[in-house]
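Hey, can you fold this one?
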Amino acid sequence: MKTVILGLSITSSWGNGHATTYRALVKALDARGHDVLFLERDVPWYANNRDLCPDRCGRIEIYRDLRDLHSRFRLEIREADLVIVGSFVPDGIQIGNWVIETARGITAFYDIDTPVTLSKLRRGKSEYISRDLIPRYRLYLSFTGGPLLRYIEQTLGSPMARPLYCSVDPELYFFCYCEPQWDLGYMGTYSYDRQPALDSLMLEPARQWTKGRMVVAGPQYPNQMQWPENVVHFEHLSPIRHRTFYNSQRFTLNITRRAMVRAGHSPSVRLFEAAACATPIISDWWCGLESFFTPGEEVLIARSAEDTLRYLRAIPESDRRAIGRRAQQRILAAHTADHRACELEQYVEEASGRG
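Sure. Predicted structure:
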């Protein structure tokens, strides 16, 4: 296929989880012989934090504004077999209308933030997708699966809603033994609705277990944030350092945003990346988690500081490593970027009537 993707960012992972998802997917599509063009809006916060290593990520073009996009890439949009517009793209509604009016191939909306998007639509405040636009896209690709897909079709009028979960690139994320520096680590941009869980599942255990070594990596945390003395905070880690970060932890913590917990079936890309590194995961609970990992065998569920401390201090080393290996096998069998590329091909066949 000749594919054009208009996404939030592929060149910078600063403050967003979209970039690593797009990089893995584009790389997998490229490896399968597809011609992929990624179009990204030029904004200062990403321009100042580019961290893309040019490694089979298709063609990438930066556009200044809507006029620049229309004048330079109209023919690319018109001739593509598949055009994807992603969530949180600046001026996404205007771009979506233009793409649908211009493209001759399949048009798709890729929602990397489905529960957030639907919450915005209910309040009438979404700036990148509208209720009128959803039925006009031939395909709605969602980071969230489960019952929400039926809602998107039956209530919002999408002709075809399908899950396209996040994934992992196993060439970048894999187990590499090193002496653990941290007992527990967490990677995530600051979010007010994740902060109570971070405090309960990491910061409070750190206060109670002062010998424990813990680390948080992510931007936008308030300057007045008071970290326990045994918790180190890194403002930002570029993706090239993620594998080392995971392999330096005995356990890693996963925390899910409130909207994703309510919707269920919304795995984070950090879950798959950590699992690919065979790092045992301690996670909060959400509906559908068991369809990705078997609780107690491939992932550990924590609801309190006591749960976290029990895992950190009581699990034997051999059992700890076994949990990580089982999760790694599960992810490599079903959740690599190549799996997602295959699924996308199948959805396009179905949407075009050839499936």
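The chain has a mean pLDDT of 95. Let me know if you want another pass with a different chain boundary.
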